[in-house]
Structures are given as structure tokens and as C-alpha cells.
Design brief:
Blueprint: E1 5-6, E2 13-14, H1 26-38, H2 51-56
Antiparallel strand pairs: 1-2
The structure holds zinc ion (ZN).
Residues 7, 9-10, 12, 23-25, 28 line the site of zinc ion (ZN).
Length: 60
């Protein structure tokens, strides 16, 4: 059974057999990895403020 996937970057069709799966090519993979490095992708959404640290500052 052949499953079809689309490149996360350009939406081209890729297969599991592709060398750069799940990307269609090295370029798309590099672009996608670059986004992660840039911080354009955010795993947890907005940065979480450190509330525990705030409490520690009440008494200086
Ligand atoms: Zn692509």
C-alpha cells in the first residue's frame, strides 16, 4: 500500500521512499529546519513567564 504525503514546505507530493521524506527535496528540508532555528515556529506558543521567579522577587 502506497501512502502519499505532501511536503510541509511546498506541498509537493512525496512518498516514504523519498530521500528527503517528509520533504520533497533537500532545499525544502533546509528551509523547514531553518524556520525552527529562527524561532518562526513556536512549540509552546508564547514564551511562558517565570511566575516562580516573580514570587522570589517580592522580598529583595
Ligand atoms: Zn517541497
Amino acid at each position: 500500500m502506497k501512502q502519499k504525503f505532501s511536503c510541509p514546505n511546498c506541498k509537493s507530493q512525496v512518498t516514504r521512499q523519498d530521500k528527503y521524506f517528509p520533504f520533497c527535496c533537500e532545499r525544502c528540508r533546509a528551509i523547514d529546519l531553518g524556520r525552527w532555528a529562527d524561532g518562526s515556529y513556536s512549540i509552546a506558543g508564547d514564551p511562558v513567564p517565570n511566575h516562580e521567579d516573580d514570587e522570589g522577587h517580592s522580598i529583595h
